[in-house]
Amino acid sequence: MKARYLYGMLLLFLSATCFTACSDDEDEYLIWDFYPIILQIAVQDAQGNDLLNPETPGSIANSGIKAIYKGVTYEKDSVINPTKAYMAHFGGLQTVKAENGQYILTFGEFNGDDTFDHEEVVIDWNDGTKDVINFSSKLTWKSKKEPVFNREFLLNGKKIDTQYGVFSIIKEPVILPFNRK
Q: What does the pLDDT look like over 79-98, one tens digit per residue?
């Protein structure tokens, strides 16, 4: 009788352990990695010429372009302190040659899952003109499996239809007194 009782208790214990140790929720241990926000700026003249390409006549690539964010000025292509950490790496204002051969400015990276509320980045073209980019981003969860981003990007106060921070700016040439011939 005692052996039967112990056998029954052991069976009950193992059954309880199996039911509590197993979970049907396989997604409980998912790790989410969100792509960072990177502002990408293509600059062309009215004829569609890539003004960031140093070989384009009238190029502004080496004109001293800067970005101003939270009161800090970032000169184009200056080196920002690198990190070995695996996270969004803020690189300031950089020139990148895209796969299609077009040159673009990038500004960022900003953590994709951080909340940003109407952040302002001023692009100073170093010719007396500036463009202002504002962005907001907020992550919410519809369910454990469905993150939802509410992002908004503005260029000079006008909403841009993009969720990824891609801008195309048409830049008219500015003739400064020291550039006249």
A: 877 665 557 889 999 999 99
Collect all residues with Cβ–Cβ distance below 8 Å to 159 and sequence separation of at least 6: 152, 153
Its pTM stands at 0.72
Question: Which amino acid, one-letter code, is at 171?
Answer: K
Residue 69 has what pLDDT? 95
* Residue 15: per-residue pLDDT: 52
Structure tokens of 139?
């992550």
Write the CB contacts of 23 (distance below 8 Å, at least 6 apart in sequence).
Answer: none
- Residues of the chain under the 50 pLDDT cut: 3, 5-12, 19, 179-181
For 2-129, list the strands marked E by DSSP: 37-44, 66-69, 72-75, 93-97, 103-110, 116-124
- b/e map of 162-177 (b: 16 or more CB within 10 Å)? eeebebebebeeeeee
Q: Who's near 86: CB < 8 A, 6+ residues apart?
A: none
Q: Which two tokens stand for residue 101?
A: 């051969």
User: CB neighbours of 65 closer than 8 A, spacing ≥ 6?
Assistant: 75, 76, 93, 105, 123, 124, 125, 126
Closest CA to 169 of 62, 57, 23, 49: 49
Q: Give pLDDT, residue 179.
A: 46
